Amino acid sequence: MNAIYNIAASALYKRAGGIFGLIFMVGCSALPEPPVRPVLYDFGPGQQVLAAPAVPTPLPALALATADQAGVPEAATAVYYRLAYADDRQLRPYQAARWSEPPPQLLREVLQARLGQRRVILGASGSMASARVDGQPPAVLRVELEEFSQVFTSPTQSAGLVRLRATLTRPSAQGENLLAQRLFIALQPAVSQDAAGGTRAIAQAAGQVAHEVAQWLEQAGY
Question: For residue 113, what are the CA distances in angstroms to 109, 141, 186, 206?
Fold first, then answer.
């Protein structure tokens, strides 16, 4: 009798163990997978800044204001792209890619690095208040970022696009006097049709724009 009881108990334990094991496996499979962390991109360690010509004469000091961004929230760090061959009016974000900083801040940094190669760059606040260039306050450069995206002209071809509006003013007792204004557009081909290729192309386009802004200021005498 005891033998029959032991056999039955053993079978029951094995069956119960199998059920618990199955429940455990089902429970584990039902657990949500951890979210994928977005890949962070920046402009790299300075390669995007084109070298300035070897001219020893420094240029006048310049105040560089905080960059603004039109159309996209200033705090957004998403990497955007457009499918020009489908609907070029739609701005789409990559789900698993982010900029390390908001694009206006990245753009201001590359502008400061490029312009600072031949002149003193001031913030458009406290440091500018006491600064003087030939007895006048330094000119102020303000930039508005209008486009900062990867544009696909086909599924196999894209480019980084940066478009910004630069405005140069001079502070006075009556306000700010407009000195010059210009729209800059730079387009750089992407080596791969993904976020990695797009961010690299956008960084190169931003470096090109910074170089063109520097040339524009010098040619205008500022």
Answer: 6, 14, 18, 12
CA atoms of 140 and 31, how far apart (whole Å) = 56
Supply 129's token pair.
């208040």
Determine the pLDDT at residue 51.
Answer: 53
**Residue 178, φ and ψ in degrees, nearest 5:** -75, 125
The model's pTM: 0.78
Tokens of 160: 């980084």
The token pair that represents 212 in the structure block: 């063109």
Over residues 106-153, the pLDDT tens digits come to 999 999 999 999 999 998 664 555 555 556 789 999 999 999 999 999
